[in-house]
């Protein structure tokens, strides 16, 4: 089982960094002591303090408390034509980090595409052989090294493969496209959507044609969190709203870190998007 990527203090930290709200200002706005805010940032949970600061940061308090208590996780996803691979990028036990890649294929034609390589493309390449698939495309969500580090192995195993990336975030050896361009995997249709903010031109790939729509989102969105707004926190939030949360609720969300989830579940449980909570 893949753990949720972030803790409640990660969500608070990403928001403080992203909005530029200083601890002192947050304290002034919420009457929460600076010392208590410092402890929250360190991961010391205090429910009343979390509930006090959440609205001032634009976060949903109930979801943040739920995250702190680890009392929710998304429903497991079982979908013919979709497989997740979770590989270890940083094996340091104190700082262990895993990353996801995804294999999507057309069950009728057996044509397949890989989305990112993860730290080690080996398990995905083995699955391609076992399932008798023909790998034609490697789609890159964004250029951060943990997502693309093993692409040479993929290209070596499948020399004719197309490697595709958004032109505004180029990667050596990859063909470039513009957001909105469409591709196919057998009879499946792939639509590219720009979900930038975490990276300069992060792409969400929306795949239609399986029993449920699938959105491979890279680090734009995580189960109950999202990637840090390294380039622009404001635009990371805005493009998630316009490009991901407008998809059907049953859409499977495939993040670069943490478990798979769905648009409907993130509407109900993601603290960064309070507007969907009843
Ligand atoms: Fe990233």
Quick structural summary:
This protein is of the alpha/beta class and 278 residues long. The protein has two domains: 8-69, 434 Repressor (Amino-terminal Domain) (Orthogonal Bundle), CATH 1.10.260; 82-276, Ribonuclease Z/Hydroxyacylglutathione hydrolase-like (Metallo-beta-lactamase, Chain A, 4-Layer Sandwich), CATH 3.60.15.10. It has ten helices and twelve strands.
Can you offer a commentary on this structure?
- The protein is an alpha/beta fold and 278 residues long.
- The protein has 2 domains: 62 residues, 434 Repressor (Amino-terminal Domain) (Orthogonal Bundle); 195 residues, Metallo-beta-lactamase, Chain A (4-Layer Sandwich), CATH 3.60.15.10.
- 30% of the residues lie in helices and 23% in strands.
- It has 10 helices and 12 strands.
- The strands form 2 sheets. Strands 1-2-3-4-5-6 form a 6-stranded mixed sheet, with helices on one face.
- A hairpin with a 2-residue loop joins β7 and β8.
- The longest helix is centred in the first third of the chain and has 12 residues.
- It starts with 7 loop residues before the first helix and ends in a 9-residue tail after the last helix.
- The mean pLDDT is 97.
- Bound molecules: fe (ii) ion.
- The site of fe (ii) ion has 6 residues, from loops.
What's the layout of helices and strands?
Elements (H helix, E strand, L loop, with lengths): L7 H12 L3 H8 L3 H8 L5 H7 L7 H9 L12 E9 L6 E9 L5 E5 L6 H10 L2 E6 L5 H4 L2 H7 L4 E5 L8 E3 L4 E4 L2 E7 L8 E6 L5 E5 L14 H12 L7 E4 L5 E2 H7 L9
Parallel strand pairs: 3-4, 4-5, 5-6, 10-11
Antiparallel strand pairs: 1-2, 2-3, 7-8, 8-9, 9-10, 11-12
Helix pairs in contact: 4-5
Bound molecules: fe (ii) ion.
């Amino acid at each position: 089982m893949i753990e949720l990527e972030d803790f409640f203090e990660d969500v608070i930290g990403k928001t403080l960094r992203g909005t530029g709200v200083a601890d002192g200002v947050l304290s002034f706005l919420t009457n929460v002591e600076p010392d208590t805010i410092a402890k929250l940032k360190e991961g010391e949970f205090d429910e009343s303090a979390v509930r006090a600061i959440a609205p001032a940061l634009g976060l949903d308090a109930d979801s943040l408390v739920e995250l702190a208590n680890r009392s929710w996780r998304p429903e497991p996803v079982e979908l013919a034509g979709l497989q997740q691979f979770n590989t270890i990028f940083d094996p340091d036990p104190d700082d262990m980090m895993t990353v996801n890649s995804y294999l999507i294929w057309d069950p009728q034609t057996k044509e397949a595409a890989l989305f990112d390589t993860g730290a080690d493309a080996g398990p995905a390449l083995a699955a391609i052989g076992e399932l008798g698939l023909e790998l034609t495309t490697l789609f890159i969500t964004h250029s951060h090294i943990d997502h693309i580090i093993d692409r040479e192995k993929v290209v070596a195993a499948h020399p004719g493969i197309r490697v595709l990336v958004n032109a505004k975030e180029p990667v050596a050896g990859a063909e470039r496209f513009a957001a909105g361009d469409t591709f196919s995997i057998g009879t499946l249709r792939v639509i590219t959507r720009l979900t930038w903010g975490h990276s300069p031109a992060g792409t969400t790939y929306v795949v239609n044609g399986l029993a449920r729509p699938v959105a491979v989102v890279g680090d734009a969105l995580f189960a109950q969190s999202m990637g840090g707004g390294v380039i622009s926190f404001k635009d990371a939030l805005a493009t998630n709203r316009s490009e991901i949360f407008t998809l059907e609720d049953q859409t499977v969300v495939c993040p670069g870190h943490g478990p798979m989830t769905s648009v409907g579940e993130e509407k109900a449980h993601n603290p960064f998007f309070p507007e969907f909570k009843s």
